[in-house]
Design goal:
- The structure holds two protein chains of two kinds.
- Chain A is 36% helix and 25% strand.
- The two termini of chain A are 39 Å apart.
- Chain A has helices spanning 5-14, 28-38, 64-74, 124-130, 148-155, 164-180, 230-237, 256-268, 287-295, 314-328, 343-354, 362-375, and strands at residues 2-3, 22-25, 41-45, 58-61, 78-79, 82-83, 87-91, 95-106, 111-117, 135-139, 183-194, 199-201, 205-208, 241-244, 249-253, 275-278, 302-309, 334-340.
- By secondary structure, chain B is an alpha/beta fold.
- Chain B has helices at residues 17-29, 55-61, 76-86, 100-112, 156-168, 189-197, 215-223, 259-268, 280-288; strands spanning 8-12, 32-37, 45-46, 49-52, 66-69, 90-93, 116-118, 124-127, 131-134, 146-153, 173-178, 204-210, 230-235, 272-273.
- At the A-B interface, helix 8 and strand 17 of A face helix 4 and helix 5 of B.
Chain lengths: 377, 290
Amino acid sequence: MNFEEHAAKPLLARHGIAVPRGALATTPDEAARVAAGIGAAVVKAQVPAGKRGKSGGIQLAATPDEARTRAKAILGIVIAGHKVERVLVEEQVPIARELYAAVLNDPSSKGPLVLFSTGGGMDIEEVAARAPESLRRQAVDIRRGFSRAESATLVRGLGLGAAEGKVADALAQLYEAYTALDAELLEINPLIVARDGRVIALDCKFVMDDSGIVRHPDVAPAGTPEKLTGLEARAKAAGLKYIDLDGDVGVLANGAGLTMTTMDMVRHYGGRPANFLEIGGEAYTQARPALELLLSKPGIRSLVINFCGAFARTDVMTGGVIEAIEALKPRLPIFFSVHGTGDEEAIKLLKERLGVTPLPTMNDACKAAVAAGKSLR
Amino acid sequence: MIVRGADRVLVMGITGKQGTFWTERMQAYGTRVVGGTHPGKAGTTHCNVPVFATARDAMKGTGFDVAVLFIPPLMVKEAALDAIEAGARGLVVLTEHIPVQDVMHFVAAAKERSVWILGPNTAGAVTPGECFAGFMPAFNERIFRKGSIGVISRSGSLGVLFCLNVVQAGYGESAFLGIGGDPIIGTTTREALIALDHFPGTEAIVMVGEIGGSMEEEAAEYARTMTKPVVAFIAGGAAPEGRKMGHAGAIVTGSKGSYASKRSALEAAGVTVLDTPSGVGAALKNRLGR
């Protein structure tokens, strides 16, 4: 789950990292009021996306009147598909140096990775490509953590001068916040050294591990829920993993890998998948609500149902599918491929209740669904 | 991380519905299940084996080599550390939705003691003709048959599909390794590839990957050095950028983890990359010459 800047910064502050003074505003007048309290301000669009500056989403305002004008200009624009509904109005801080600091989950070292660079302001791929010598990285054993002393070592020799100690503090505090918050990414870009010597987080990107959300009932409500379509929201409420796509071949399978592969095969045979919907794992008993949900999607011309049972029993999934079909009596052509745990019973059920025989392979089922969909166009 | 017929298996969380269902199937297939755990049911017998409070107690009681965990997400860290400290040689962690920082914790502890871990979020491992650990349909002869093809898969269901195709093409499996769909897992594709490369009786390896992360690219570096043929499939070529397709690990952002990046890395390393799962038989015949 993503946290926007205004939600993430107070969390940094809680761990001792300095952030600019400011507040959230949803109207131009509110932005002016906030600016009146802090002086020269910066008005920043709050959306769960990067590159806000390049999209005109970050503007300076010397006076409250200017803050009102800037907020009016920013509110309502669309950045990377997100309409701006809130702006963060913060004090302007005169910058001496821009740095980069982050802690993230690293699959290669199977642990946390601390990143630090004196090339702040750019995105980190750019830094890695253009100025690799300025990028320091340290893999951490999460059982031991990342101490203040290790932080000091990591930032040494980069010409930070008098700010070096405070930068080391901030990086160690960032690591503490990362573990305390079940973060998968906690990034400050830029972390600045102000002209008056303070070290301040001017921006913050925080992504909480979705599997850790249950451990943070106090913090999680401040996160930005994923933007969902109507059907996606209904599926989520029902505990189903569903994603809307723009094709016309409906897809129902068990397991993320198999479902992605079913979509791949639909595309391989010249069709376009209408969705991602998987009922693997504990959700294998949810075939009926899953299919009922999918059948309510407009514009589906054909359907492929592809089960390969391991943990998920194909007889149970097929039973649910049959119930949905008997209840809704859909007219669209449906093609099955069923293999793995429980398949003999599943095939028997399909024959007895629907008079249907699964196709020999998933390729056959995908190919047939694409062809059937095209013939109906 | 290949489970053998002689390995003594401890089922942690044996008394639950799934623990019971799959323990019975493991026993029927020949897995040497020697005990189980449940903190409140120590001293009882379940599925004809003794139940202990902890893995440490089980080690003192019956001894074991491999622990299979049927444990809820927030309790896995403690259970895994228990098994590691008890002296397990390997762990199969089936659970999905374990907080990633918990995973990092027990993976680090395992590494320190040279304990292997399959998962989290894996369907387990199968050594046809010997045993299986987890929830794979090892007992289905159209899917698993003793043979010479090593199979690696992040996804259980997709692993089943490939094993089905391998058997349909007239081959069998030397071993199946489910490595799991989480972003951070105990055994990477590369590490599984190395294990199967050294596993006697394995003549070729089928590697089933998916978009997201850089595990397939890292595996390609090792595949380049191998003499055994490797055939690969990458799921998720049709998935849109920026959306998690079920597996937390399967997300593409920018060029990182994309289908194109993985495919080109594998092809450059001499790996045959399949367009469809059903192509696996023909690809193996082509590479093995029979």
